[in-house]
Specification:
The chain has 247 residues and is an alpha/beta fold. It has ten helices and nine strands. It has a five-stranded parallel beta sheet, with helices on both faces. A two-stranded antiparallel ribbon has the order 6-9. A two-stranded antiparallel ribbon has the order 7-8. Bound molecules: flavin mononucleotide (FMN) and iron/sulfur cluster (2 copies).
Length: 247
Amino acid sequence: MSTTIFYFSGRGNALYAARMLAGKLGDVQLVPVSKAMEEGADFSADRIGLVFPVIDFGMPGIMSRFIRKMDLKDRTKYIFAAVTTGGMPMGTMTQLESRLKKKGLKLSAGYYLVANGTQESLDAWHQKTDEIVSAVRDKKTQAIDNVKFLDKYIMTGLANRLAAVLVPNDDKKFFTDGNCDGCGICQKVCPVRNIEIKEGKPVWLHKCEQCGACFNWCPKKALQGKNLAARTYHLNPYVELKDFFID
Ligand SMILES: Cc1cc2nc3c(=O)[nH]c(=O)nc-3n(C[C@H](O)[C@H](O)[C@H](O)COP(=O)(O)O)c2cc1C
Ligand code: SF4
Ligand code: SF4
């Protein structure tokens, strides 16, 4: 039985999760959401997986836009999600469920994978992904957890919505220090083509997802900024730079 997993990842955790699921499930096509947005998505597989991180208490903007564009004729298609989180997912899964519902689609099962920067948290994914794979293989449905009012309506409902408006322009706070040598790696890893190199320096185009890829992959650590994406240096230890090149 075939599966297509659409993923979005800035610092490798969601990519690692998607690969783990693909390896255990078999017959899986892994597709970056940014590529599917540019080239069109094929939903003909028997099962559809969505793998992405929690950003600002909810879904990253690109995932919301992807769901809005999802053109899936078969409304009974089995759709599952694996969402990586630093430990504060709030109402992300119910948000995803309701976005899919608006498209006439059903989130059959949704799981969180916690990555808090420790190796122990990633080690725990082996067991958790076994659980996900066994449920997905049998196309098991699972009620999406009901979360607290505050998490669902204030943190995800309001804060994430506000973030969706503010975040694209937050790259106005990004800048390079004197160590930038114009290598262009930041441009090559930005999943939404938000960076151009002009006169040997990166220039941001204000459609940022705050994924943190450019900061983390800059070999000179030359990128600076005043927000969360800029402050958190952490890369999943099982991914490589070449995994993030978008072309
Ligand atoms: C800008 C930013 C905002 C984040 N916001 C949240 C959040 O609200 N709740 C949470 O649990 N984790 C949050 N995280 C942590 C990520 O969800 C977590 O590190 C995830 O595993 C990253 O996946 P990736 O490595 O595939 O990008 C945030 C990370 C970044 C960079
Ligand atoms: S990756 Fe770093 S050094 Fe290379 S162009 Fe970008 S900011 Fe400059
Ligand atoms: S500019 Fe940097 S933080 Fe923003 S989407 Fe691109 S890689 Fe991610």
